[in-house]
């Protein structure tokens, strides 16, 4: 197979190289997948630099999120869920390659009518946003929801989930183009959060200036968001894309009866497996009803494993919106994208 192997940490994705590698050898509980599309994540950049919490022993193949076609089922499973030829998406170490091995729990069937490129960007973003808004915050019709970094991968997923549940969505982003993207995915109002008065602007968009019921924050804007959060509001702490862990003036939390709610979707598979199943059922229902569409960045195409460094640099430089997905054409010409 061809893939991007990491034998030592690199400073920039530009140092990554595609080489010929032996095919992965699946364990008795693993599938072998032909990769047709690989999605990029911020943690991929951290991992190749040696800065992520999960660092495999050298050498390892980079990338984690993919979509493709099943080549072989696990030898130890009597009744595999995905027969050979199944279109699947999922996550497993080694996605930046033409083949990857993965456990059944890390795979899902590609949605009907979606290309494998579309499906490749679904596994991380959709359940993070659905789990946060539906499971943790109990979003409902009539709620006002503020989504920060709304044009990002989890942001666009959050906008769509909140709208599907009948909420009014106020989206923030840092450029005119990203605000337009958020609007095209269903946001009712958009606010530029480079304007220092954004909390005031958000508040004015809510009935009688009461503030928003839910804040979805993958950036690290909790402290400022307390200024435009309603009484009994929930602030979902999804991540720290701004790069620093902020300190929050807790008196504001107390005065408005605000709930600060942590969201660590990756740990649900460890602590609450049954919730993983119900969250995916909910997402697939929204997709089937046409209420959740693919969020793949489409301003520019990235085709071939050689384009992974460019895709990661674009992602890291905040030049993109949605999910940046790289198409991985199969040499045999069998790719069903």
Describe the structure using short key phrases.
6-stranded parallel β-sheet, 2 domains, oxidoreductase activity, Quinone Oxidoreductase, Chain A, domain 1, zinc ion binding, Enoyl reductase (ER) domain-containing protein, 337 residues, 7-stranded mixed β-sheet, ER, alpha/beta, 11 helices
Can you describe what's shown?
Helix 3 crosses helix 10 (273-288). With 337 residues, the protein is of the alpha/beta class. It has helices at residues 42-48, 116-120, 125-136, 153-164, 176-184, 198-204, 222-225, 250-255, 268-271, 273-288, 308-316; strands at residues 2-6, 18-20, 30-39, 60-61, 65-72, 87-91, 99-103, 107-109, 144-147, 168-173, 189-192, 212-217, 229-237, 259-262, 302-303, 325-327. 27% of the residues lie in helices and 23% in strands. The protein folds into 2 domains: 2-122 and 294-327, Medium-chain alcohol dehydrogenases, catalytic domain (Quinone Oxidoreductase, Chain A, domain 1, Alpha-Beta Complex); 125-266, Medium-chain alcohol dehydrogenases, catalytic domain (Quinone Oxidoreductase, Chain A, domain 1, Alpha-Beta Complex), CATH 3.90.180.10. It comes from Neurospora tetrasperma (strain FGSC 2508 / ATCC MYA-4615 / P0657). This is Enoyl reductase (ER) domain-containing protein. Residues 11-326 form the Enoyl reductase (ER) domain.
